[in-house]
Write a structure and sequence with these properties.
mainly alpha, 2 domains, two-stranded antiparallel sheet, 3 helices, 46% helix, 11% strand
């Protein structure tokens, strides 16, 4: 009979179906969540960065760094979202 105790026992030993290890990785562009949604998000980030820069609320060099990150968000060839699949038995029982 297989129950959660059995699965937890094999998982702790690194055996069976529920062993820990990355089985799948996907890297996607920001617009995968929707072109309009991504565009709106980028515009909000740009606005916030401009406002903070105008108010002087940034240490030296941060504005330039954020501008580079925003340009990376706009570039469809650079993945912005990573999804990892980690099979395993996770429990609060420790």
């Amino acid at each position: 009979m297989i129950n959660t105790d059995t699965i937890a026992h094999y998982s702790a030993q690194g055996k069976g179906l529920h062993r820990l290890g990355i089985t799948s990785v996907s890297c996607l562009s920001h617009s995968t969540m929707g072109v309009d949604c991504a565009s709106d998000h980028i515009q909000k980030v740009e606005k916030e960065v401009r406002e903070r820069e105008r108010s002087g609320d940034m240490p030296p060099g941060l504005f330039e760094q954020l501008q580079l990150q925003i340009s990376a968000l706009k570039d469809e060839s650079i993945p912005d979202l990573e999804i990892l699949v980690l099979p395993g038995m996770f429990s609060s029982n420790g």
